[in-house]
Design brief:
The protein is mainly beta. Helices cover 12% and strands 58% of the residues. Strands 1-2-3-4-5-6-7-8-9-10 form a ten-stranded antiparallel barrel.
């Protein structure tokens, strides 16, 4: 994708984030009164929780696959606004002699709305840094991402969240991509949930996700 498209995507996502963030913050009450689990809600937005996931990534047209591990924490900052910290390790070509390892640290802000009875739409924007090692060579890059989605409460303990995400590591070759997918979470009890997901990027790679969410 060219620079013009990158800038247009960033500006559009930023405008959406600012607009939804302003809506969510319009009736902000003192933080101590609003932050925390919402009574009767089993969703993930606005909750204090951690996530540990594994992705099996089927690489289009390749004889190998990728393994991706993510550890993430979510912390409400205000009503309608979450802060996210994450770490990801991804490895391509294990056992093939051409192994590639990538480590990424990131942080993001996610603004969401609870004004609709059909679901909770959200937008997010994040930044981070990534390190890549391949066949003895090393590279690194600043990264940024934007995303949008909707969390649907399909059962009292279950949510389904379709999403779209754009990520870019400007200093890495082929570092930009679009992801389209959905994830589902089911709470076994008040503290622990299981989750699954499916996503596909614009290079036709498909990621199958399994993991767990846990409240602190």
């Amino acid at each position: 994708m060219n620079t013009s498209l990158h800038l247009k995507s960033m500006l559009l996502a930023s405008a959406l984030a600012l607009g939804l963030g302003a809506t969510a913050r319009a009736d902000v009450e003192p933080l101590a009164d609003k932050v925390g689990p919402v009574a009767g809600s089993q969703g993930l937005l606005g909750q204090v929780y951690g996530t540990l996931t594994y992705d099996y990534v089927d690489l289009d047209g390749a004889a190998t696959h990728a393994d991706s591990y993510t550890l993430m924490s979510n912390q409400p900052l205000a009503f309608g606004l979450d802060g996210i910290l994450g770490y990801n390790f991804t490895q391509w070509g294990a056992g093939s002699g051409g192994r590639v390892n990538q480590n990424t640290l990131s942080g993001a802000i996610r603004a969401f709305s609870t004004s609709y009875n059909w679901g909770k739409p959200y937008v997010e924007a994040g930044v981070g840094y990534t390190w890549v090692r391949a066949s003895g060579a090393k590279d690194n890059s600043f990264v940024w991402e934007t995303a949008a989605g909707v969390e649907f409460q399909v059962l009292p303990r279950a949510t389904v969240t379709p999403f779209i995400q754009y990520t870019d590591a400007p200093d890495l070759a082929g570092g930009s991509k679009w992801n389209f997918g959905a994830k589902a979470s089911y709470w076994i009890d008040a503290q622990w949930a299981v989750m699954v997901g499916l996503a596909r990027d614009d290079s036709h790679n498909t990621a199958f996700t399994v993991g767990t969410n846990f409240r602190f």
